[in-house]
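User: I'm putting together notes for a lab meeting next week and I want to include a structural view of one of the chains we've been expressing. I don't have a solved structure, so I'd like a prediction I can at least talk through. The sequence is below, exactly as it appears in our construct file.
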Amino acid sequence: MNRINKLVGTSVACVAAFLFIAGRVSATNLIVNPGFESGLTPWTYSGAGANANGTVAFGLNGPSALGSSCAAMSNFDTSTTLSLQQSTSPGSVVPGTVSYSFDVRNSSFSGGSFAYEIYSVPASGPATDLGPGTSPSYNDSIWHTLSGSVTVPANVDHLTIEFDCIAGASPSSGEDLFIDNVSITQVPEPTTVTLASLGVVGTVAFGRKRKL
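Assistant: Thanks for the context. Below is the predicted structure for the 212-residue chain, given as structure tokens.
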């Protein structure tokens, strides 16, 4: 009986350790330089113009993590979009649920707005827009933390997250936008974790049986 109890105890301990390690690994942020503490690399801006530009703002930081800088975007070029993007590394995601979060602070003028989108990119072929499709415009110059999740389809290779600073059709339209502490993570499906856990239990049990 003592041997059985030891076997069960050892198996449970191994499963707990596995789940802990799996949880820590799966929580790894797929975004590089999420807080813009080392400049813009590998982030890229597109759509810059005479009155639309992006840079790193030093001395300003979102609430989700410690730091001293963030991304700054300002667009007063009528009816244009200034975009900030980063793609995760090739093969970094699989079909399933992906969680995201980021800090945002904005000021809108005469119809200016901001939006964010996450794209699923296959190894070949067009990207799929996963949403969210709508973005709240706080227009209060206060930091807010937005979070949510999207469902990644089959044949995915990596993801791209995009932040849009949009100027409206009015000549006086514009948008000032700050982004910080961007996170994209993927947690394994419960079935995957369960099967892996059962494998650990089986291995421990088989080893114990041979020693008895």
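A couple of points you could mention at the meeting. Residues 2-26 form the longest helix (25 residues). The chain has two domains: 1-27+188-212, 30-186.

User: Perfect, that's what I needed.
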